[in-house]
Amino acid sequence: MTTSPPSSSTEDELTARVRAALDDVAERLARAGADPERVRVVAVTKTFGPEAVRAAAGAGITAVGENYVAELEEKRAATRDVAVRWHFLGALQSNKIARALAAADLLCGVARASEIDRIAARRPGAAIYVELDTTGSAQRPGARAAEVPDLVSRARDRGLNVEGLMTVAPPDVDGAREAFRTVTRLADALSLVERSMGMSEDFELAAQWGTTEIRLGRRLFGPRAYPSKP
Q: How far is CA 151 from CA 13, 54, 100, 113, 117, in A?
């Protein structure tokens, strides 16, 4: 369904909202002991329209994340005049890797050797994060901690640019703390700069463990409006 483009006043209001949210996030990061200037905010625009991308860029955010390939393609096409780096955050499906590579600047959910081989064959030098599953859930994508060193080595051997690690932490505080500790330990051991860990609910705890990137959606834009089921 096509919707009318938002008015400039609506876009201005959304940009102001994002700026205010970023100010609050910066204060919280500082209280957690992190330097806000050294923690990148990725605006997760899943379910939000292109106006969210424009508002994020207008507020000074330089990275935007999407979880679904089709939504990434549509939103990037609608905001080609906006200078942001597009992160694909979702699990990689074999039949959609080519599309994800064409639409994203960074693939964040790499977790299997087969994915690495397909990416390297299609785009030598592609930028990736290796995703670490710290929940132990069969439904959660990501590699086990013991698999990460071999995956990073394989990706590097095939010429990919492994920028860092990503994780989605368990919801409980103790589990999240252990997840962030594990990511930091592995990133240090593998000489990886980026540690993408922390979302709207747990970014302050992630900041205590040296995150370089937090992924925020609702905290920036408000509640998500999911389509109603028929």
A: 44, 35, 20, 6, 10
Q: Residue 167: in which H helix or E strand, if any?
A: strand 161-168
Assigned CATH topology for domain 8-221 = TIM Barrel (3.20.20)
> Token pair of 167, please?
């994780």
Rg (CA), the chain: 17
H or E element at residue 195? strand 194-199
Cβ atoms of 206 and 170 within 8 Å: the answer is: no
Q: Which helix (H) or strand (E) holds 213?
A: strand 213-216
pLDDT at 136: 76
CA-to-CA distance for 110 and 175, rounded, in angstroms?
A: 22
Supply the pLDDT for residue 11.
78
Around Cβ 14, how many Cβ atoms within 10 Å? Answer: 23
